[in-house]
Amino acid sequence: MSALTETRPSSVLPTDLTIAAFFEWLEGQPRRFELVDGAPQMQPFVKRSHSRIVGNLDHMLQTQIDRSAFLVHQGDFAIQTGPRSIRYADIMVEPAGGPPGGRTTDSAVLIVEVLSESTAPEDFGPKRVEYQALKALQTYLVVDQETPRIWQWDRGYDGKWSAHATIVTAGAVKVAALACDLPLDEIYFGIPSAANNSQD
User: With 181 labelled, which of 24, 62, 188, 196 sits at a CA distance of 20 to 30 A?
Assistant: First the structure.
């Protein structure tokens, strides 16, 4: 067995991993990790509200998009954001047609992260920068899991990103690249705290 596949405590993490070495090392880990410039970074456990919102988004996207043209992934397929960086978004949509045995994509069209207190610095900071550097990405969404509020960045026709997020608190998020609308009522379906904080 390779030394990289041995389970190690999180306090003794390897450094300077290639993407191939990271996937090999990941096979022996009981927790989820991302790879940030060659260093594994442990991912937090999520709350039920987080999981419900992700499921709601997945359902809406699956029922609206052309599934022969696009694939929807729910946090389980890697996005390569750099030569030694791997991220796992809560929701990611990529064009269909990639090799079945592939383990990564850099062709995401839509990326969604559901916000939590522990992930906010990453979602608004390094992750946003990495995601927006992907040539194919058209829309990046950060979804508050406590109240109906979504930060939306879109790539313009000139290829440049909007300098500031559009904050959506009512109605629907429009994803032009996928020709679909994501109503906030449906995104937050089953989330009592969001219903109580609705600004409709």
Answer: 196
